[in-house]
């Protein structure tokens, strides 16, 4: 059963079930004090900046994402427009909205590589200080 507030408002978080974003867990919490467009924008931005969505990945259409999240299309459109204004996505007319390439993509790729390096170093029993020194040596030798 869907949780309701005393005023009868649905407070169940709404999950996206569209496209690749499905796997990434975009959720809108109607009980949050943060506006729904901002929840969508912030989650998509985090997915892009962490490299879970990479340059060239297509976002679901505004209408599909809105329908999946139970939001008005204008709410999702605002989130996408703000992502576009910040350079994280590009809208290509009929080709849809894709994750843009740019500085965020480089940072995301480096973040993924750094996480892999840390995991490999820890698995090998190398402490964090020694791992950082390995990176510094590599920088000096490059």
TrEMBL record:
Segment forming the signal sequence: none
Pfam families the UniProt entry points to: GntR
InterPro entries attached to this UniProt entry: Tscrpt_reg_HTH_GntR (IPR000524), WH-like_DNA-bd_sf (IPR036388), WH_DNA-bd_sf (IPR036390)
SMART domains: HTH_GNTR
Record keywords, A-Z: DNA-binding, Transcription, Transcription regulation
Keyword DNA damage among record annotations: no
Descriptive protein name: GntR family transcriptional regulator
Keyword presence, Transcription: yes
Coiled coil: none
Positions of the HTH gntR-type domain: 34-102
């Amino acid at each position: 059963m869907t949780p309701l507030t005393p005023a009868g408002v649905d407070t169940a978080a709404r999950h996206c079930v569209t496209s690749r974003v499905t796997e990434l867990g975009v959720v809108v919490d109607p009980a949050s004090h943060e506006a729904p467009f901002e929840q969508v924008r912030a989650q998509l931005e985090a997915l892009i900046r962490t490299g879970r969505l990479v340059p060239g990945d297509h976002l679901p259409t505004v209408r599909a994402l809105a329908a999946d999240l139970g939001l008005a299309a204008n709410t999702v459109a605002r989130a996408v427009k703000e992502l576009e204004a910040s350079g994280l996505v590009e809208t290509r007319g009929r080709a849809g909205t894709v994750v843009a390439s740019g500085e965020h993509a480089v940072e995301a790729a480096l973040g993924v590589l750094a996480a892999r390096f840390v995991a490999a170093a820890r698995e090998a029993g190398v402490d964090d200080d020694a791992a950082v020194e390995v990176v510094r040596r590599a920088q000096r030798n490059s």
